[in-house]
């Protein structure tokens, strides 16, 4: 989430929303198959699902490898999924990471992204670019939407308080205010 002048930009879709989009697409595919003339129609090809899974695993930190489970849950079918031995960490590692992050009040996604960058650069003879990648992650706004909104509200209240004090000083200087309400 990035903040501009009186604007909150949520950036790209969250992982949870991406999963929801996939679920809706697969549910729609089921309905089209059920009610349409082509009982084998595919709204998303197997190759596209493989690519999405690869992106989720390697770039989005989907340590639980959720795409195959979503596909099977919605369609009732299982596809031949490529086993990726170095896709990142799994559910057990994510659970440990969540516990540590909770203990130290850190966003889980922050550490997941940092670990994913390290995994991406692991084994490279030249790791140029790793500092820029880490810096990009560390410079993101890691607050929750609720915290960002609360901070924005506090900023507005503080700004209002400053404006009131300035108005009092100006009115006092012109002899129009001498304490109390104005």
Give a nutshell description of this structure.
This protein is mostly helical. It has seven helices and two strands. It has three domains: 1-88, no CATH class; 89-142, no CATH class; 143-182, no CATH class.
Structure description:
By secondary structure, this protein is mainly alpha-helical. The chain folds into three domains: 1-88, no CATH class; 89-142, no CATH class; 143-182, no CATH class. Helix content is 60%, strand content 3%. The chain has helices at 15-35, 46-58, 66-75, 91-104, 108-121, 130-138, 145-173, and strands spanning 2-4, 7-9. Strands 1-2 form a two-stranded antiparallel sheet. Strand 1 (2-4) and strand 2 (7-9) form a beta hairpin.
List the SSEs and their pairings.
Elements: E1 2-4, E2 7-9, H1 15-35, H2 46-58, H3 66-75, H4 91-104, H5 108-121, H6 130-138, H7 145-173
Antiparallel strand pairs: 1-2
Helix pairs in contact: 1-3, 5-6
């Amino acid at each position: 989430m990035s903040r501009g002048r009186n604007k909150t930009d949520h950036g790209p879709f969250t992982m949870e929303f991406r999963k929801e989009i996939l679920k809706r697409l697969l549910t729609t595919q089921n309905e089209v198959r059920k009610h349409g003339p082509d009982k084998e129609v595919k709204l998303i090809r197997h190759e596209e699902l493989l690519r999405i899974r690869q992106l989720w695993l390697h770039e989005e930190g989907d340590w639980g490898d959720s795409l195959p489970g979503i596909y099977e849950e919605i369609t009732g079918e299982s596809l031949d999924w490529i086993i990726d031995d170095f896709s990142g960490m799994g559910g057990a590692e994510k659970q440990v990471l969540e516990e540590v992050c909770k203990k130290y009040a850190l966003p889980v996604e922050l550490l997941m992204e940092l670990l994913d960058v390290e995994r991406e650069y692991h084994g490279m003879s030249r790791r140029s670019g790793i500092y820029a990648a880490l810096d990009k992650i560390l410079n993101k706004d890691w607050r929750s939407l609720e915290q960002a909104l609360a901070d924005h509200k506090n900023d507005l209240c503080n700004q209002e308080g400053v404006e009131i004090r300035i108005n009092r000083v100006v009115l006092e200087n012109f002899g129009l205010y001498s304490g109390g309400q104005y």
